[in-house]
Design goal:
Elements (H helix, E strand, L loop, with lengths): L1 H24 L2 H17 L7 H21 L3 H25 L5 H22 L12 H5 L7 H4 L8
InterPro entries: DoxX (IPR032808)
Main location: membrane
Keywords: Membrane, Transmembrane, Transmembrane helix
Length: about 160
């Protein structure tokens, strides 16, 4: 079961790393998609930068870093939380494009939005998965039992104990 979870995390990380690398190489396509959302949020919050290309680069770096952490098994919960947080702005942008798009482009936009939603759901599942699960449901009690202790009297025969 542990091998299956490890491989599933690697499979989940692969598209996120590839998408992050693609965004780092050419952030303009992602920045164009994020521009309306970034400008709207930056207008409401003064502390947010009004630069969609900067957000696209940050998302690409977060995708590569989080995907690498997830694939190697280092801090998988933190990696999943990072990847889920970085995917939300893109998901919002895809849903906005879907709503404002033409009927011809809606099919491709729907597929992209559904894929992003399913990846977000998988990341949330991986982030909230229990840390150590027993491999056999009936074996739960056996793995948590403490070994039986021997009384100090028998373990240390030369020492007198009061009763």
């Amino acid at each position: 079961m542990r091998l299956l979870r490890t491989q599933a995390r690697r499979m989940l990380a692969a598209p996120l790393v590839l998408e992050g690398l693609e965004t780092l190489r050419d952030p303009s396509a992602r920045a164009d998609a994020l521009a309306p959302t970034v400008r709207r949020l930056a207008g409401r919050n003064a502390w947010l930068p009004d630069d969609p290309e900067l957000l696209a680069r940050v998302q690409g770096a977060a995708g590569v870093a989080g995907g690498a952490l997830l694939a190697t098994g280092r801090a998988p919960r933190v990696a999943c939380a990072l990847l889920a947080a970085q995917s939300v702005p893109t998901l919002v942008a895809h849903l906005r494009e879907f709503r404002d798009g033409t009927p011809e482009t809606r099919g491709a936009l729907r597929r992209t939005a559904v894929r992003d939603l399913s990846l977000l759901g998988a990341l949330v599942l991986a982030a909230t998965e229990p840390r150590h699960r027993p491999s056999v449901p009936g074996d739960r009690g056996a793995s948590t039992r403490l070994p039986r202790r021997t009384p100090a009297r028998t373990a240390l025969p030369g020492i007198r104990f009061r009763r």
